[in-house]
Design goal:
28 strands, globular, about 55% strand, four-stranded antiparallel beta sheet, mainly beta
């Protein structure tokens, strides 16, 4: 009986993929998971179906934010102010594009790559020309960035607000105050904005009214939708909060590795980075 209980516990335990010194950020794209290792300066390709590392490639300057679009992987170097474009099939560098100071988060949408920079700007990169086609000045400290509902949304941690950029005019047209706004995840009808206050704000993208406030763990960061629920990494208490959008409440709290920064969906599972120990945790819904 004891042996069966131990075996059941082992089978139920989350699996992990060791990607490097630090598993900093993760985004899905092209059937793979793309993980940055900001300490050893690498981009790591993970096969979520097989649960293994496929390849690693050096990226200088503390790579952190990453996104996938226009058939490429785009990686921001925190210490270089450069976004590197990588061919996912050949691992070759296709371009290096200088953006603002300390690029933080990247998102692809509307045919462009959008980059939040800690100098208070957002860089818009045109993939056809591999260059910045517009620099939008927000001020403050823009962190998370997302493209949804025909706008580019930026969480301004420094000024505690959510800003909406009209991509046709390349200027901010909407704003709402949200304390310590940090990261943004869109659903079919809402923007879910994490706050260092330990809360997730559910915002109507049309009226910008706050529809719900969900208390999660300590310092929630980049969440993702998995099996119809919002999976939120809490960096300061090493947990993931699973939020049911129907009730706007946490239905599960899962311990994970040290300093979880981001969650991504892959092969039906939630994959959680551990910035401190370099593991990518696989959690099943």
């Amino acid at each position: 009986m004891v042996t069966l209980l131990v075996l059941a516990a082992l089978l139920a335990a989350p699996s992990k993929v060791h990607v490097g010194v630090s598993a900093s950020f993760v985004r899905p794209g092209g059937g793979a998971l793309w993980v940055t290792d900001r300490v050893s300066n690498q981009l790591v390709r993970v096969d979520p179906a097989a649960g293994r590392v496929v390849w690693r490639r050096g990226i200088p300057g503390a790579p952190f934010g990453v996104t996938y679009g226009a058939g490429s992987v785009w990686v921001g170097g925190r210490n270089t102010g450069v976004v590197t474009r990588i061919d996912p099939k050949t691992k070759r560098r296709r371009a290096r594009i200088r953006v603002g100071i300390s690029p933080y988060s990247l998102a692809f949408g509307g045919g462009s790559v959008w980059v939040s920079n800690e100098d208070g700007t957002v860089s818009r990169i045109g993939p056809r020309r591999n260059k910045v086609v517009k620099t939008i000045r927000l001020g403050g400290q823009p962190n998370g960035i997302a493209v949804a509902f025909r706008k580019v949304w930026v969480a301004d941690f420094g000024r505690g607000r959510l800003s909406g950029i009209n991509p046709k005019r390349n200027r901010v047209e909407r704003r709402i105050s949200l304390p310590k706004a940090d990261w943004i995840t869109a659903s079919a009808d809402s923007l879910w904005v994490s706050s260092e206050t330990g809360k997730i704000y559910r915002v109507d993208p049309v009226s910008l009214a706050v529809r719900a406030v969900v208390t999660v763990g300590a310092n929630p960061l980049e969440s993702s939708w998995v099996a119809g629920r919002l999976w939120v990494p809490n960096i300061d208490d090493n947990t993931v909060s699973v939020v049911d959008p129907g009730t706007n409440a946490v239905v599960r709290t899962i311990p994970v590795g040290q300093s979880p920064l981001a969650v991504a969906e892959g092969a039906g599972s939630a994959w959680v980075t551990s910035d401190f120990d370099g593991d990518l945790w696989r959690l099943d819904p």
